[in-house]
Design brief:
Elements: E1 12-14, H1 59-62, E2 87-97, H2 99-102, H3 105-115, E3 120-126, H4 133-141, E4 148-152, E5 164-170, E6 174-176, E7 182-184, E8 196-202, E9 212-219, H5 225-241, E10 249-254, E11 271-273, E12 289-294, E13 301-307, H6 310-314, H7 318-324, E14 330-334
Parallel strand pairs: 2-3, 9-10
Antiparallel strand pairs: 1-7, 2-14, 3-5, 4-5, 6-8, 7-8, 8-9, 10-12, 11-12, 13-14
Helix pairs in contact: 3-4
Amino acid sequence: MARRSRRINLWIWIFITVFSGGSLTGLLPFDLSSILDGSSASSDATESAELPELGNAAANEQNPLADQRVLVPNASIDNFSPVDRPLRIASFNIQVLGQSKMSKSEVVNALAVIIRRFDLVAIQEVRSKESDVLPRLTQAVNAGQRNYSFLIGPRLGRTVSKEQYAFIFDTERIEYDPGSIGTISDPDDLLHRPPFVARFRARTREPNRAFSFWMVNTHTDPDEVPQEINALADVFRVMQQNQLDEDDVILLGDLNADPNQFGALRSIPAMKWSVEGVPTNTRRTKTYDNLLFSGAYTTEYTGAWGVFDMEKELGLSLSDALQVSDHLPVWSEFSQWETASALQ
């Protein structure tokens, strides 16, 4: 069904997640008040109460669910020895990640091994009415004495089958701004599942030099790919041009489109994508998953990228790999240090 062509609004609904680990010591010094909806927002009643205004430092204390938020101890950077290597950022559509999948120990173990290969993973297709899926998955990832945590968005979708986006990240390598977590406003219903966004920064001993960036996590509706791709081009422009001091934007996820179908996204000056000519589904027939960013602004991209081969890397048969997901993780590498934009 055709959607109206009105552009995406230049603001974001704030959504404070019920579960979000990670250190709150990583607050990034910027103010989004000029482009964010300043009023409170609410989501499904089982996930959050009415939210405080943006910038309220007491937000966590006021949240009746705040005691469930921390899955790993808050950690000062002084407790870690930051690894001096580029960040490896991935996208992974974990097909119908819900109670059934989480009940299969071999699948959960495979997911944990995969996630530990990366510093930050954008996840699509969390599908469960219960709120314990990401906590349980993160606990499995941390079974190897690791310190991963996560952010998760609201349940989205036009039908009774809702999905959530999530980010899982290594708190020893990545920190996030608690005030930046949001879902793109889409008043004209251009997108079946509007992207989930958050701002991150590499955890280093020199924070002023560390690479900081927006992540825009998306999953298009396969029945409306051309329209949604064009709407995502607007999302990308909004995020890059209206985010005050941050022009590094990484749009990633399951686009249900290969680069030849990127439509208006291809017309954005200097737009780059990591994956081309390599299938990203487990059956090796489609290139649907990708990471996109501006080659002019995000010069931190090292040029390294890949598609994680579950069969080869984990020694799985095709049928076993399909139990994990019908998509393969895709990844790109970025310097942990901020570099000068090519436009400066």
